[in-house]
Structures are given as C-alpha cells and as structure tokens.
Amino acid sequence: MMSIWIRAGLVGASVSCLHKKRVALAEVKRDTGRPGMEDQDYELKLVQVVFRHGARTPLKPIPHNEQVEWTPTLLEAPEHTQFKYRVTDLEGGPQPPSPFEERYRSNKLKGGAFPGQLTTIGMQQMFSLGARLRSLYMEERRFLSPVFNPSEVYVRSTNIVRNVESTRCLLAGLFQQKQDGPVTIVTTEADDEILYPNYQGCKELKVLTSGRMPIASSQPGMTDVLKKLNQDLNIDSTKQVDFFLLLDNLLAEQVHGFPFSIQYESHLQQSEQRVIDIVSYLMGPNNRYVYRNVW
C-alpha cells in the first residue's frame, strides 16, 4: 500500500548553504548573561532549508461527472523560473528511475495533464520562496554569493519531477537566474529515500503501522462524514473515495481558481480536519519514536 505521506503529497527537497568566510549578524539584543555586555556578532556557518513542492495537479481524480479540466497549459513554466540543472544519484551517477513518476504518467486527468505535476502557480510559489531567502541570506546578511556557486550550495531532492522542478524554481528565485554552470540536484532510489517516512524501505516502520489505517479511518463519526461528503459531491457509492482523495482534489481546485462554492469550502475544511485526525492517530504515542527516527 502506498504510504499515507506519499498519498498526501508530503515529499519535497532540501537546500543546504555552507559558507565559512562570510559573517552574518545575529539578532541577539538582550539576555547575554553578562550585565553591560554589548551585542555579539556570530558567524553563520550553515543554513538548511527543507521545503515541500509547490501547487500541483491532483494525484488521482475524484470519480464523479463534474471533474475539472487540467490542461497542459496549466503546467507551462514562466521564463523567470528557469534555472539550468542536472539530476544525479547520491554518488554522482545517472538519475535513478522513478516508480512514482512512472505511475503518474500511466494515466491522464481530464483535460490532458498528468497527475501530480507542478503547475505554473506552484512554480511561482517556489520562485517567491527563493526570492524571500535571497532577501534574507544574500541581500540582508550577505551570506551567499550573488551568483550560484556549487561550493556554497548542496541540493537534495526526492526523485519526483514536481520536487525537482520546485527546487529549480526556488533556486531561480534565490539567485535570480545568475549561475556560472548548472546546479547538480542529487537524489536516490525510492527504496532508499529518507526525506519521507519510507514504508517500502523501512520494514520496522511498515510493521509498526500495519493495520492502523483501517482503524484510523473508522474512528467515531468518520464513516458518516465521508458518506455525506460523497453524497454532496455526487460520487458513485460503489467507488472507493477517502478523505485524502477529497482533500487533494478540493484543495488543488481552490488554489488554481476553479469554481469553488461556499458548500465546497465546507467540504474542504471537513476533509482537512479528518485527514489530520487520521494522521494524528497513526502517529499516536506508541509510534512517535518511529517517526522521530525516520526523520
């Protein structure tokens, strides 16, 4: 069974910025521990940024007759989000195959776009995040060079297209497309991935969480709420639809500006709360140490 975290789309990338020579001013204004001691300058050694992907198309459509059209034009990359890159494995070898991406591209959504793909809006979101990091760590603290320097930045991503492209857009915003050469984005095989709880790669995690999903999904009120939402959305009662699928689609439609009634807003809120309830149950007291070790 696909991990609950993968179903929710909780995968992303990380960027580490290392600089030994530049000095950043820490905003330490008081509580120095020594009366009369002036503010201290601290040398900033390392910045680690862990982020999710930007807005994307749904992973799987809701099975009803009112599906929106996800056309390929919604995935067009703005010129300012472009940044030259190459993807390798952790040792610098060829990019590994991606079973998740193969699964996404085996089907198309209504309109022609593939599931789980970064959209133009998602690209702009990541570019804006990069611009915010630029303002803080380049313009304000002068921690990074204004042009991309591979000796200063290490980039790691899960091996899924939307995450690699999100990284590209963030770097474009961070460096404003200024680079002497392509950035290397490193990734790994799906079975060895550590950037999300890996049920396929960690047998202990799989054993300790096995069988908890049905119990989590049948907590008091869950079944009745799900049935009511399915009825309101005109979903065939014979189809298997859970809160994760509802949340994934309703949120994607809202972010991308599709017609979104007040009634659907309520559905989105209810789906989101139930997803939180399920995840909270799965990460109960008996399992917290597992997730701590995974991360």
Give a written overview of the molecule:
By secondary structure, this protein is an alpha/beta fold. Helices cover 38% and strands 9% of the residues. It contains ten helices and five strands; from the N terminus they run H-E-E-E-H-H-E-H-E-H-H-H-H-H-H. The protein has helices at residues 4-7, 99-104, 120-140, 161-175, 203-209, 212-217, 222-232, 243-255, 262-282, 288-294; strands spanning 12-18, 46-52, 85-88, 153-157, 183-186. The longest helix is centred in the middle third of the chain and has 21 residues, at 120-140. It is globular, with a radius of gyration of 22 Å. Mean pLDDT is 84; it is low at 1-11, 20-39 and 288-295.
Sheet with most strands: strand arrangement: 2-1-4-5-3
Question: Low-confidence parts lasting 5 or more residues at pLDDT below 50?
Answer: 1-11, 20-39, 288-295
> In angstroms, what separates the terminal alpha carbons?
21 Å
Strand proportion, as a percent range, falls in: 5-15%
Shape: globular
Order of helices and strands: HEEEHHEHEHHHHHH
Mind summarizing the main beta sheet? 5 strands, mixed
Helix content: 25-40%
List the defining traits of the structure above:
295 residues, alpha/beta, five-stranded mixed beta sheet, 5 strands, 9% strand
Summarize the structure.
The protein is an alpha/beta fold and 295 residues long.
How does the SSE layout of this entry go?
Blueprint: H1 4-7, E1 12-18, E2 46-52, E3 85-88, H2 99-104, H3 120-140, E4 153-157, H4 161-175, E5 183-186, H5 203-209, H6 212-217, H7 222-232, H8 243-255, H9 262-282, H10 288-294
Parallel strand pairs: 3-5, 4-5
Antiparallel strand pairs: 1-2, 1-4
